[in-house]
């Protein structure tokens, strides 16, 4: 059963006598636990039509590079294979996603689309709404609780959204029933890319970025589920100690969640089956914190600018924007890990060479960019640019919220100090006091050595 709030009619057009139901798969490229796919199959069965799944690959997605495209394409191979086993046709095209959806919709009875939250994804949806002649149904499947159901306004902190989410969890923490397609295509003449040669597609996309794919993470739902299984069996119990950079008690689900290759509902249900002492801490991150980030990006249209901050944080940073900095680094120096701080440099190198940064170090990393840059506006843009360029889980609500947190978002005021004002401060002494930082440095050095060898 798909909870009703997950389903939203985006227009009032009547059903057409088309050749198929079209599922425009864009934010949720997976077959496993995908409400939009199951809804599409259900509707196709009701009107006795086959189902066509469409995915558009564009070289115009902001800040996407070869690292991101490779991970995406690896995941699409999973999707294509899984759909084929169910007798469902898929069209993967190198085209502007809304233009491709509109073209295929000309022969569709109706269109179903999953939901993304960034401004570009919402612009795509609006273009299709404006040009479509048949019904368009949006089915939300990348969060546990639909963003508008969780809250009708931007939430101030985890504490304010937690109460609202917890009241509604029982309604949405429900396993998704699988549907079987009844009607198949007897013949279908639709162009689709072959995913046999990912490197060739990357070349055709024409990305000039020097950011290379990483070996540590390989895209695809199958890989995500294997990682999740390992995490639950071997790391979940220790998850409350995840902040220690010298350990690895993380699930590493964020790249797969970013690309829609695994469902947060599936992860939550699997974790809930356990009796692990780390269960509550993990679900807090997966549901409360992650959906607070979605709430932020959905309700705050300046999510990628410093003005996204609460007034107290923005004002205190402006009051201290001319404070003297002991160190000032350029974007290139940050990018090349050329600061005086070995811990910051290690965090940057971890991100560059693995596609992901340890969570506590990402907070420290962002705070120091604020401290070592000419002004807060420049610091915010540098942090976003680096995060979006190198992180597999950048360029999404969690990424934007995580960077903004370093500047005071979703936090409270602290004791006032230079440069930071009342924004929370972090330093290297705290790292050494709490953690075995030499072990972290050794692990990053080994990572760098293995990735360049």
Automatic annotation (TrEMBL):
One BP annotation, GO: photoreactive repair
InterPro entries, alphabetized: Crypto/Photolyase_FAD-like_sf, Crypto/Photolyase_N_sf, DNA_photolyase_2, DNA_photolyase_2_CS, DNA_photolyase_N, Photolyase_Class-2, Rossmann-like_a/b/a_fold
Presence of the UniProt keyword Ribonucleoprotein in the record: no
Superkingdom as given in the UniProt entry: Archaea
Cofactor or coenzyme needed: FAD; coenzyme F420-(gamma-Glu)n
EC identifiers of the protein: 4.1.99.3
Example GO molecular function: deoxyribodipyrimidine photo-lyase activity
Catalytic activity line of the entry: cyclobutadipyrimidine (in DNA) = 2 pyrimidine residues (in DNA)
Keywords for this protein: Chromophore, DNA damage, DNA repair, DNA-binding, FAD, Flavoprotein, Lyase
Boundaries of every Photolyase/cryptochrome alpha/beta domain copy: 19-147
Keyword RNA-binding found: no
PROSITE patterns per record: DNA_PHOTOLYASES_2_2 (PS01084), PHR_CRY_ALPHA_BETA (PS51645)
NCBIfam families: phr2
Protein family (similarity comment): Belongs to the DNA photolyase class-2 family.
Name of the protein: Deoxyribodipyrimidine photo-lyase
Annotated gene: phr
């Amino acid at each position: 059963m798909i909870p009703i709030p997950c389903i939203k009619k985006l227009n009032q057009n009547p059903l057409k006598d088309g050749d198929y139901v079209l599922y425009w798969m864009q934010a949720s490229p997976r077959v496993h636990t995908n409400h939009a796919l199951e809804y599409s199959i259900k509707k196709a069965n009701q009107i006795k039509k086959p189902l066509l799944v469409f995915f558009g690959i564009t070289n115009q997605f902001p800040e996407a590079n070869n690292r991101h495209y490779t991970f995406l394409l690896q995941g699409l191979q999973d999707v294509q294979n899984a759909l084929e086993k169910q007798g469902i046709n898929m069209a993967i095209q190198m085209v502007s996603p809304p233009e491709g959806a509109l073209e295929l919709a000309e022969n569709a009875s109706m269109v179903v689309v999953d939901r993304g939250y960034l401004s570009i994804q919402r612009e795509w949806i609006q273009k299709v709404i404006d040009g479509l002649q048949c019904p368009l149904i949006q089915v939300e499947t990348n969060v546990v609780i639909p963003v508008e159901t969780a809250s009708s306004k931007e939430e101030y902190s985890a504490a304010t959204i937690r109460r609202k989410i917890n009241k509604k969890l029982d309604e949405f923490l429900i396993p998704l029933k699988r549907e079987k397609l009844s009607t198949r295509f007897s013949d279908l003449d639709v162009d689709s890319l072959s995913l046999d040669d990912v490197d060739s597609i990357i070349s055709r996309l024409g990305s000039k970025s020097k950011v290379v794919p990483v070996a540590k993470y390989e895209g695809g739902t199958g890989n995500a589920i294997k990682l999740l299984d390992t995490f639950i069996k071997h790391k979940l119990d220790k998850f409350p100690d995840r902040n220690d950079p010298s350990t690895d008690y993380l699930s590493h689900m964020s790249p797969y969640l970013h690309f829609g290759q695994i469902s947060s509902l599936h992860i939550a249900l699997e974790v809930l089956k356990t009796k692990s002492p780390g269960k509550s801490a993990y679900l807090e991150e997966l549901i409360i914190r992650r959906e607070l980030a979605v709430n932020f990006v959905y309700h705050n249209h300046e999510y990628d600018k410093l003005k996204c901050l609460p007034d107290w944080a923005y004002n205190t940073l402006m009051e201290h924007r001319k404070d003297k900095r002991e160190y000032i680094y350029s974007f290139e120096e940050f990018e090349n890990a050329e600061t005086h701080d070995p811990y910051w440099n290690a965090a940057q190198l971890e991100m560059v060479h693995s596609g992901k940064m340890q969570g506590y170090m990402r907070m420290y990393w962002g705070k120091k960019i604020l401290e070592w840059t000419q002004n807060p506006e420049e610091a915010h843009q540098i942090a976003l640019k680096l995060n979006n360029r190198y992180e597999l889980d950048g360029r999404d609500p969690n990424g934007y919220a995580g960077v903004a947190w370093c500047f005071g978002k979703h936090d409270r005021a602290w004791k006032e100090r230079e440069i930071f004002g009342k924004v929370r401060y972090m330093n290297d002494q705290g790292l050494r006091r709490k953690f075995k930082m030499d072990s972290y440095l050794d692990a990053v050095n080994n990572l760098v050595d293995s990735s360049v060898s």
